[in-house]
Amino acid sequence: MTTAHLLRSRTAGLVAALSMTALLAACSSPGDDNGDSASAGDGGGAVSSLPEGTADSPGGGAGAAGSKAGAADRDGAGGAGPTTAAMERSVVSSGSVSLTSKDVATARQDVQRVVDAQGGDVTEEETTTADDGAASYARLVVRVPSAKFGATMEALEQVATFRSSSRGSDDVTTEVIDTGARVRAQEASLERVELLLADARDLKDVIWIESQLTSRQAELDSLKSQQAWLRDQTSLSTITVDITVPEDRAEEPDGPDEPAGFLAGLRGGTGALGATATVLATVVGALLPFAVVVGVLGVPLWLVVRRRRAGRPGPAPAESA
């Protein structure tokens, strides 16, 4: 009974091993193709270019096959990501609102209340004050959830006197999907290289695999930074709000046309006389300093010349024949 029981146990174990081998082969076939294409796209070529004797070489053994199967399972599990992401559009929205208000500080507080009600934040602010210390200009950059972008724009346009506004959007759905796929492929490639490093025995292979690991890790970090930036831009919209004081308009409204007549002529003549008197007074005021100088210097000189002429004897009378 012991021998028969042992034979049955070995037979059951052999059948289980064959079943697991077939299952791993079935699972690893599509995953290996994806993994190889991802590795080729990375430009590293680490798996196919490794020298003989490493864990992923043609004679690498069952450990490499198991790592490939695990990577294929991970790739297959992550393959549903692009399909789900493709169902939703990823849009980067931005806008600007220009307002005028006699009380810029109050309008700025109203903008803050609108942003708080929509669940947003003020990320940048610039305020300019006039000579009297009152705010004369304010510029705010706000970030609000993308789902509330339209409602926020409409609410901000009603805070103060509306001048102008603009809106824009950029569809980055393809870029989001592509970045996500590249991140998953790079993570799978990095895990395979880490497994190869754990199985490497030759110093030359260790150095080469570590260089591949460093370059792929740097590329993965760059892809994740780009993915985080896209996530931030698509989840929050940016709105710039400008608030200025309205320009002073001192122009009086035109009154009704007055009929021509004696009074109109008298009013016009009086105005012309006043303008002429103003001009003459200006000329006299400009010439007065010169007249003073001429009076101070010219009058004494004229008196001296006159006395000299008076003291000279006149010509002798001519004798008669």
Overall description:
This protein has 321 residues and is of the alpha+beta class. It has a domain at 31-247. It has helices at residues 2-42, 62-78, 80-86, 104-117, 149-157, 173-199, 203-235, 262-311; strands at residues 91-100, 121-129, 135-145, 161-171, 236-244. The chain is elongated and about 140 Å long. The model is unreliable at 1-7, 21-86 and 249-255 (pLDDT under 50).
Can you tag this structure with a few keywords?
alpha+beta; 8 helices; elongated; 321 residues; five-stranded mixed sheet; single chain
**Nearest-angstrom radius of gyration?**
48 Å
Stretches where pLDDT is under 50 for at least 5 consecutive residues are 1-7, 21-86, 249-255
Major sheet characteristics: 5 strands, mixed
State the end-to-end CA separation.
200 Å
- Counting helices, strands and paired strands, the structural category is alpha+beta
As a percent range, the share of helical residues equals: 55-70%
- The string of secondary-structure elements, in order, is HHHEHEEHEHHEH
Tally the helices: 8
The overall pLDDT, averaged over residues, is 73
Summarize the structure.
Helices cover 62% and strands 16% of the residues. It is of the alpha+beta class.
Write the SSE topology.
Layout: H1 2-42, H2 62-78, H3 80-86, E1 91-100, H4 104-117, E2 121-129, E3 135-145, H5 149-157, E4 161-171, H6 173-199, H7 203-235, E5 236-244, H8 262-311
Parallel strand pairs: 1-5
Antiparallel strand pairs: 1-4, 2-3, 3-5
